[in-house]
Specification:
Layout (H helix, E strand, L loop, with lengths): L4 H12 L4 E6 L2 E5 H11 L4 E6 L2 E9 L3 H10 L4 E6 L3 H5 L9 E7 L18 E7 L2 E8 L4 E7 L1 H11 L3 E5 L3 H11 L2 E5 L6 H12 L12 H17 L11 E2 L7 E2 L1 H7 L13 H5 L5 H12 L5 H16 L1 H11 L5 H9 L5 H21 L6 H9 L4 H10 L20 H28 L5 E5 L3 E7 L3 H5 L8 E5 L3 E5 L1 H34 L1 H27 L5 E3 L4 E6 L2 H9 L8 E4 L8 E6 L6 H17 L7 E5 L3 E5 L12 H15 L5 E5 L7 H19 L2 E5 L15 E11 L2 E10 L7 H8 L3 H19 L5 H7 L4 H4 L10 H7 L8 H16 L1
Parallel strand pairs: 1-5, 7-10, 9-12, 10-11, 13-23, 18-22, 21-25, 21-26, 23-24, 24-25
Antiparallel strand pairs: 1-2, 2-4, 3-4, 5-6, 7-8, 8-9, 14-15, 15-17, 16-17, 19-20, 19-22, 26-27
Protein name: DNA mismatch repair protein MutS
GO molecular function: ATP binding; ATP-dependent DNA damage sensor activity; damaged DNA binding; mismatched DNA binding
Keywords: ATP-binding, DNA damage, DNA repair, DNA-binding, Nucleotide-binding
Length: about 900
């Protein structure tokens, strides 16, 4: 069957992008056909229709309006699709010049993938959208990452073992790897919810990568940017190659690549990030995470910087101390802090506005955002200049100035509130360009201009009945009664007025000026838009030329926002400045868990019970607290809060405590809670053991480790053995600072055998058979676990609780009497005794309860109620 020219064009383009949905531009819609239409209609929940036939079958079709395409793109990207955007490269009128049946030229202008989004509506303002690339060159590996919406570009060497933790830290949207490596990394990418893209091995060629990087930054060699390994160059080069493919040659404005060293930041594995809920809650989403509680930033750039600092706390003491000094200054300078934060609230997202402009996806509103943001940056810098700033803020303040000339150009050229798109027009300020003003006047006031010309002609000719009229044949023309024809056709008027037409009663003329004015009026709208587009291109060129300074200003604003935000948090929540040094100290006074404290305040209003912790150690010796106590008493909260306080201190923040002394930690490990990994066939116990093994194999003597209930997923003696051996290994081999929570009370004996182990317990009080949690941590060991009482609080049936007490008493008696055999215990506790046992006795009632039993409050008068109250008091005291 003959294929129409348009469909032939579609199939040709689709063949080039077989792994993506093709958004085929047809007028005001993006249309999809064949399998793309079926998949898109289901994913977007839009109607599936048909258009024409192919090989005798109907062609499925669906479409989305161009003006609403961004929302549909976001949905498709989130559902795992890639989208090739195909635009019309000429107008239908231009196509017809080649022949009446010519098809409009179309081409793919962009491949939309999760890691290459730039549109404001497709991105979360407060988090980065990273595109990563993993490369291997012989025995070396490297990871590079870029956020094309901000221009951030980084690279680091790593091993296969570190790939997972680094992906957990960065939380990228997309990972590109060599096609040969894709099957090996599929499970890892799926675990982290990352779109995995395999590309040709040639993209990872380090020689070609170096050439691409040198061309991008217009340099002869990369030596000025650092000593990169071949694997690092390969990873960066692969990113550039992928961007060239997806952006169709329009590369984003990337900053010079920065090389990161793992030794400069605290190493945190994926399980620890998940357990501590650093940037995302276990339930999913930002709410309930540590980041959500910390975030007092008022700009998007500041929020992104906070997420980076929280994900990568520093191990460099000078860096940590400089950040703490800046926060201390902002805490004490309350008035200045409030003024600066008020100014920061007016700062738009400079990085992303700049990136959109560099990719030709920006508009007048992005220019205005840069104007407004740079203006605010200058005002904030001036506000800070009157103070004796700490070095960190002083450097940030200096980076925010130096753009006065660009600000002036933008301010002079742009209106206060420009439209979103260039095609909307009206963004160049009146008076900036006389030609533009004239075009707008003609466009908006054409009738007035013609009326003025008519008045001028009447004055010049002395013919009061002269009129300027318009029709579709002649356009604009001058008309006079036939009685004035001789005058108009004779010199000197004939030299100006050109005869066009004579009718029975009228004579019609034109002039050169009227013809020119007619052309101007008819083309005024297009001319005005053309002039504005020209000015937009000039202003964009000025902006891109100043991109380096704009990026510096944006980073300075983010630093000030983060510092003042952390200071606001510390002042409002009564957080303390930690002492951080290179010792092996770890002393926290009245520490609190910020997320739990915030949740208590929002729900019950109950205060958080603060606790001390001392894991200070000398000369590379281990220091471990062995924590015992019942479930729900707060052991896990205590473990987590101390890890969080250490992490906050090293990111340069005040901490939720009265005081804290933290000797720099190199690694942070947490194994708190576990769940099945059914996809990989792993039980809860297997997950627990895998995570524990990773800790024991990697932790060094400056690591901080928190472990909860090691060995609980298997038989009692197996679990106790594993927990016992794990604690000994931490003490003797890893020599780390650690908190080790357990229900195995037998392990408390280790405190007398291992010098670095101390017992601690979470205090509870038992009252009339019920347990009251005090949430207080003291030195010493718990005498029991109170599991039955906790089960009672959870709502287990009374018969189950009663039976559990009987079983527990028998088991404890057997243990006290020197090892009753399992068979003896089973004989004493037959399988069906629970069913045969009598129902539990009715709970005893007090005299007050008896007296209240027959009282009906709704039937009492005030006097009778008072009498009842006296009787109750008498019953209570009798």
């Amino acid at each position: 069957m003959t294929v129409t020219p348009m469909m032939a064009q579609y199939l040709e383009l689709k063949a080039e992008y077989s792994d993506a949905l093709l958004f085929y531009r047809m007028g005001d819609f993006y249309e999809m056909f064949f399998e793309d239409a079926v998949a898109a209609s289901e994913a977007l929940d839009i109607a599936l229709t048909k258009r024409g036939k192919h090989d005798g079958a109907d062609i499925p079709m669906c479409g989305v309006p161009v003006h609403a395409a961004e929302g549909y793109l976001l949905t498709l990207i989130r559902k795992g699709f890639r989208v090739a955007v195909c635009e019309q490269m000429e107008s239908p009128a231009e196509a017809k010049k080649r022949g009446s049946k010519s098809v409009v030229k179309r081409d793919v202008v962009r491949l939309v993938t999760p890691g290459t989004l730039t549109e404001e509506s497709l991105l979360e303002a407060r988090r980065h959208n990273y595109l990563t690339a993993f490369a291997e060159v012989r025995d070396a590996q490297a990871l590079a990452w870029v956020d094309i919406s901000t221009g951030a570009f980084h690279v680091m060497p790593l091993t296969d073992l570190r790939l997972g933790p680094e992906l957990a830290r960065l939380a990228p949207s997309e990972l590109i790897v060599s096609e040969s490596k894709e099957p090996d990394l599929r499970d890892l990418a799926d675990d982290f919810g990352i779109a995995l893209t395999g590309i040709a091995r040639s993209a990872f060629d380090s020689t070609g990568g170096e050439a691409r990087l040198c061309a991008l930054f217009n340099v002869e060699t990369l030596d000025a940017y650092g000593a990169f390994t071949r694997a690092e160059v390969a990873a960066m080069g692969a990113i550039i190659q992928y961007l060239e493919i997806t952006q169709k040659g329009k590369l984003p404005l990337l900053r010079v690549p920065q090389r990161e060293a793992a030794a400069r930041t605290v190493q945190i594995d994926a399980a620890t990030r998940r357990n501590l809920e650093l940037t995302q809650a276990l339930s999913g989403g930002r709410a309930g995470s540590l980041l959500a509680v910390l975030d007092r930033s008022v700009t998007a750039g500041g929020a992104r910087l906070l997420a980076r600092r929280l994900s990568s706390p520093s191990r460099v003491l000078s860096t940590v101390l400089a950040r703490l000094e800046a926060v201390r200054f902002a805490v004490t300078e309350t008035s200045l802090r409030h003024q600066v934060r008020d100014q920061l609230r007016k700062v738009p997202d400079l990085d992303r506005a700049l990136s959109r402009l560099s990719l030709d996806r920006g508009g007048p509103r992005d220019l205005a955002a840069l104007r407004n943001g740079l203006t605010q940056a200058g005002d904030i810098s001036a506000n800070l200049s009157g103070s004796d700033l700490p070095p960190l803020l002083s450097d940030a303040s200096k980076r925010m100035i130096g753009n006065a000339e660009l600000i002036d150009r933008l301010d002079t050229a742009l209106v206060a509130e420009p439209p979103l798109m260039v095609r909307d027009g009206g963004f160049i300020a009146p008076g900036h360009d006389p030609d533009l003003d004239d075009a707008r006047k003609l466009r908006d006031e054409g009738r007035g201009v013609i009326a003025q010309m008519q008045a001028d002609f009447v004055s010049d000719t002395g013919i009061s009945s002269l009129k300027i009229k318009h029709n579709n044949v002649l356009g604009y023309f001058i008309e006079t009664p036939a009685t004035h024809a001789d005058k108009m056709l004779s010199p000197p008027l004939s030299e100006t007025f050109i005869h066009r037409q004579t009718t029975a009663n009228q004579v019609r003329f034109t002039t050169v000026g009227l013809s020119e004015m007619e052309t101007k009026i008819l083309n005024a709208g297009a001319r005005a838009l053309e002039i504005e587009r020209h000015h937009f291109d000039l202003l964009k060129a000025d902006v891109l030329q100043a991109a380096g300074k704009i990026g510096q200003a944006a980073s300075g604003l983010a630093e000030v926002d983060l510092t003042t935000g952390l200071a606001e948090l510390a002042a409002c929540e009564n957080w303390a400045e930690p002492k951080v040094d290179e010792s092996r100290a770890f002393t926290i006074t009245r520490g609190r868990h910020p997320v739990v404290e915030n949740a208590l305040r929002a729900t019950t209003g109950d205060p958080f019970i603060a606790n001390d912790c001392d894991l200070s150690a000398d000369d590379r010796a281990a220091k471990i607290w062995l924590l015992t106590g019942p479930n729900m008493a707060g052991k896990s909260t205590f473990l987590r809060q101390n890890a969080i306080i250490a992490l906050l201190a090293q990111m340069g923040s005040f901490v939720p405590a009265e005081a804290a002394h933290i000797g720099l930690i190199s690694q942070l490990f947490s194994r708190v809670g576990a769940s099945d990994d059914l996809a990989r066939g792993r039980s809860t116990f297997m997950v627990e053991m895998v995570e524990t093994a990773a800790i024991l194999n990697q932790a060094d003597d400056r690591a901080l480790i928190i472990l909860d209930e090691i060995g609980r997923g298997t038989a009692t003696y197996d679990g106790l053995s594993i927990a016992w051996a794990t604690l000994e290994h931490l003490h003797d081999s890893n020599r780390s600072r650690a908190l080790f929570a357990t229900h195995y009370h037998e392990m408390t004996a280790l405190a007398g055998k291992l010098d670095g182990v101390e017992n601690a317990t979470v205090a509870v009080k038992e009252w009339e058979g019920e347990v009251i949690f005090l949430h207080e941590v003291h030195k010493g060991a718990a005498d029991r676990s109170y599991g039955v009482q906790v089960a009672q609080l959870a709502g287990l049936p009374p018969a189950v609780i009663t039976r559990a007490r009987v079983v527990l008493d028998a088991l404890e008696k057997g243990e006290r009497e020197g090892g009753a055999t399992q068979k003896t215990l089973i004989d004493d506790l037959p399988l069906f005794s629970a069913a045969a046992s009598p129902p539990p006795p009715a709970p005893k009632t007090s005299a007050v309860e008896d007296a209240l039993a027959n009282v009906h409050p709704d039937e009492l008068s005030p006097r009778q109620a008072l009498e009842v109250l006296y009787k109750l008091k008498e019953a209570a005291t009798s």
